[in-house]
Amino acid sequence: MSARHTTFLTGVADVLAAADAGGPHSHGVSALTRLVDVLGEVLGVGRVTYSDVVGRSARTIAATRGGRHLLGRHLDLSDADLEALGRGPWAGEDPVAGASRYLPVRLRDRPVGRLELAEGEHDPDVLRLAAVVAAHLVGDHEAAPQPTPPAEELFIAAAGHELRTPATVIKGYADTLRYRWDRLDDDARREAVEVIAARADALAALADRILDGDLGTGGELRDFDLAEAVRGAVATLPADLAVRLHVTLSPGSVAFGDPGSLPLVLGELATNAGRYSPKGTPIEILATSAGPTACLQVSDRGDGLTPEQARLAFRRFWRADRGDGGRYGGVGLGLYLVRQIVERQHGWVTLAPRRGGGTVVEVRWPRAAHAEPR
Question: Which reaction does it catalyse (predicted)?
Answer without folding.
Answer: ATP + protein L-histidine = ADP + protein N-phospho-L-histidine
